[in-house]
Write a structure and sequence with these properties.
It comes from Eubacterium segne. Residues 11-359 form the Acyltransferase domain. InterPro entries: Acyl_transf_3_dom (IPR002656), Acyltransferase_3 (IPR050879). This is Acyltransferase. By secondary structure, the chain is mainly α. The chain has one domain (3-361). It contains 16 helices and no strands. The protein has helices at 11-27, 39-44, 49-68, 78-89, 93-113, 118-133, 143-146, 153-173, 180-207, 218-237, 247-263, 271-289, 295-300, 303-310, 312-333, 339-361.
Amino acid sequence: MNSSVSKKRINSFTGLRFYMMIIIMLSHMEFLSLLHNGYVYSRFFHNAYVAVNFFFILSGFGLAYSYKCNEHLPQITLRNSISYGIKRVKKIYPVYFILLFVCLPYCLYLSISDGNTIIVAFCKTIFKLILDIFLVQSSTGILQLSTGINSVGWFLSTLFLLYICCPLLLKLNEKIKNSLKAVSLFWGINLALIIIFYYIFEAIESRTFFDSLSYTSPYLRIFYLISGILLCDMVKLSKRNLNAFNTFSETVIVLLNILWFVFRNSITIDIHIKYIVDFLLCVLLIYIFAFERGYISKALSNSFHVKAGNNTMYWFLIHYPIRLYVHAIFSFFSPAATWYIGIIEVTIIFVLTFLVTNIITGKKHYSTDTSMK
């Protein structure tokens, strides 16, 4: 097997994480849609689907890749599986925990603004805090609880719950990993399950108070994680001419992703077809860049991209509290709703996010298991 898919780290993935996180952060600047001609933002830039999918699929790929590099899994018990999940998030958890309390006053304020009494608002907020502390909020399938205190915390919660399942999934994968035919078959079945459960969860969401099953919950995202595991097997077992994966193929898939990002919201096709395209573009991106055969891969593997990519989970958790308070300050002073002011606000949010992250990490560069360690 070519060394590019057997080495310990695939740095191009770390570089891709940088750009995907910028997309996610940009998608959270919803106040831009309220500006004059705000449809420009809503139509062309408010789209995080591909980027969010990317991180879940890459997480599965990364865990399987680490396991292929002789990572030893514990005996499959509930206790060991929980310990495995804790191990995967423990580096980022202190920052996550602190940010919960940073967001707590704002969350309480919002609850009171919704018409709740101080006592009711306090009780609701504390209940959310308890769920968030144990990283189980996304398991509720209820949007108000899943988004919790720090709204973006659902992502880490879902990852944590999926990590708990990983020892079992990786053990089961041992039975098929050496057969490209079997891996391809199960990958196809997994894709079919994603589509089926989209419909099932959407039906449940439209009829019950479980209104967050198809995006934030681990019940659907587990299939994305499994896709990443199987995709790693495919990369390892691929018998194609690796020279086919070069700068041209990397350029094509990058351009397809860029065009889809820009025009996705403007295309009038069934939303489920869009979900499939989101998924398949992520899969192609990860598959092609796993071989690191082109100039784009080399560019993504430089020191800047690797350092930035390793900080993405910090950016993700930190940017949203900053966005809440910065926007509250701008709203308090009621500046004119112009793109000039909007761009200044976005710039401040991004700069403060990078500065706070740099202060927290210092000279140490941490990464979560969505990178190729």
